[in-house]
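Chain A, query sequence.
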Amino acid sequence: MKAVAVSKFKDAPEVMELPTPVLRPGTLLIRVVAAGINPFDWKLIDGIMDGHMQHQFPLIMGNDAAGTVEAVGEGVTRFKAGDNVYGQFIHSPIGEGAYAEYAIVPEKALISRTPKKVSMLEAAAIPTAGMTAQQLIEKSGLKHEQILLLVGATGGVGSFVIQLAAMQGIYVIATVSDEEGAERVTKLGAKETINYKKLSVEQQIKTKYPDGVDGLIDVASNPDGFKAMSGLVKKGGVALTITFVADDNDLKEKGLTGGNFEMKGTVATLDALTDAVDSGMLRVPVEQVISLEEVPEAIALSRQAKGKGKTVIKI
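Chain A, predicted structure.
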């Protein structure tokens, strides 16, 4: 089968011809239709989980995906051949990934049946970004009409945060770098946009909201940037980051809760997103559809944080 893989940590990904995985007890053999690209995918091939989980090489990349169950192993009861499924395909050993024509996935992995109202391509864009956004909103504790400053609004996670926050009546201020981005996030539900290329976010927020905002979700900043952004939140508010750059002591001095946030996906969270998509309340922000051959270039762009919306691989 065709797959995108690396032969060792920190190698550039390449398209390889590899054996189709063999079904094992307790697993599903899935014909992958689409896979979503996330920064975590290239962090894995850089060795972020080395020493924490077993790896195998060639290491096939990819976590988020959607596909059709071709066969089920002994003992599998949740799914049957012909089911369309999606979710996070990652499991131990790392290396049996989703950037491939076929994937082996344990029945107990974080997977569920696909939403009925969207394509497989759209379904593959949901799992990591959608669950991260859902849990960020829950962790923030923000309520109807409270003000949320969202830094990094045009990426996959940001696109879901805007919609999920808007569904709860939270007033979202989204940072953007151009008019195209402003138009995109406004359509998703942002009430206000800040173009940081024209004037700093700090200046614009302090002018319009001298008392500060109620909460911050930052999916983009470095340590200095997050420190500056969290300074725009009023005392008693919340400041969250998924880039692990928060200084807990600094937040404590500012009277803020939150800090570094790590998504811990659950089937219940994935199913809640499925329901939101099928109800028409949640749009899936697929920005670009590429082939397996285009993945190496797409990974290079992801490393530079140049993506908007979600990039999905059609397999």
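The longest strand covers residues 27-36. The CA atoms of residues 146 and 160 lie 18 Å apart.
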